[in-house]
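[#protein-structures] MJ: dropping Chloramphenicol resistance protein here for a structure pass
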Amino acid sequence: MINKIREYFLKCPFLEENAKLGIDYLTDGAVNYSINVDPSGAPIKRYTDGSCIKGLNFSFKSHEYYSSSEVDNTSNLEFYNKLERWIKENNEKGIVPELDEQYQYPQEIEVLTSGYLFDNDEAIGQYVIQLRFIYMED
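AK: finished. structure tokens for Chloramphenicol resistance protein:
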């Protein structure tokens, strides 16, 4: 499932062209991206027929150039605003990660937090947006 989520984000027009998009691995230096699986709870909703709605919590992270310049840092936050809008527009169009598993039906990607600065050093900032992939399972 996480590979399908990665494939979905590789189609995002706002990603840097030659940047890497890892899974649970964010390379050093800027600009790079990673999709990290976060702890997820019980199914969101169970139905009497045995089917349920589930959610996979994950984070989209990046290493971006960071400095005392408001221009750099504002640009980083603007990237995450665009990413959030792109996800919401895709949901409205029914564009979600495709699943190979039988009896799993993708619904949407839910934005849990807006993008924010998580950690930084003098030249690199780690930014994060927390998300949840909602799908139905028979």
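MJ: nice. The longest strand covers residues 52-65.
AK: one more thing. The chain has a mean pLDDT of 93.
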